[in-house]
Amino acid sequence: MEISLIQTDVFYKDKIKNLELVAEVLANSERVGDIVVLPELFSTGYIFESPLDIQALCEDYDTGPTISALSRLAAKYGTTIVAGVAEVDKGQFFNSVAVIGGKGLIGKYRKITQTNIDKLYFSRGDTLFTFEYQGVTFGIAVCFDLWFPELIREYSKLGVEVLLHPANFGGEQSLHISKARAIENSVYVVTCNRIGCDVTADIVGEYCGKSQICAPSGELLVQFGGEAGVKTVNIAVESSARKKVIGVDLIAEMNAVNYQLALTK
């Protein structure tokens, strides 16, 4: 199983240029993995002057041009693309990740945990998402989701072996948390972060890159620096990655109340 991470800067609010960039990166890659992972909100940016700015860029996944364009790329390279794409559905807006194959949308995950920025723009998702590919069970978490161990334990109970983690973060805490979650749950954690910055009158968001793949042992199989690039890594999902964490049910019960409180703050 080969996984390609594409770490990029973002052309702010310019979906066409961001899609062209992904197409160019794939065309120039020596090989394209079975799974290609892009950052959170890769086609728009993350921080805006007004909620209306990002909400105007959100797409209906059934008709949106970004999903269609990524599906064509998935078909061309025989891959499955996992990408953060802002979504609108029945008047609600979501920080979502699309899983896209050559025949179109396979499924989607809506970010469950919210930063203060997310709360300004988006409704909160409420459902975990898994999919099977080449005999491996994948789950999706978006950026801040990884900070909540209870959420990742729920994925572990669903049999997830590889957690795909599109992100937009500036500090390195998430990199350490990624390693902890991999070890705790005996899963691969595949983090694809962006670089560059979003600038508004009130906030400057700077993103550090350093995308990485962490094995269940905690070993880093690959880690980027702070530059744009693409790396393809072969991972071998062994039987040990299929084990449930000892005591996960008890731990989940003990933390259930605190988890729900954290999500509503």
Automatic annotation (TrEMBL):
Keywords: Hydrolase. GO terms for molecular function: hydrolase activity. Pfam families: CN_hydrolase. Residues 1-237 form the CN hydrolase domain. Gene3D superfamilies: Carbon-nitrogen hydrolase. This is Carbon-nitrogen hydrolase family protein. The lineage of its organism: Bacteria, Pseudomonadati, Pseudomonadota, Gammaproteobacteria, Vibrionales.
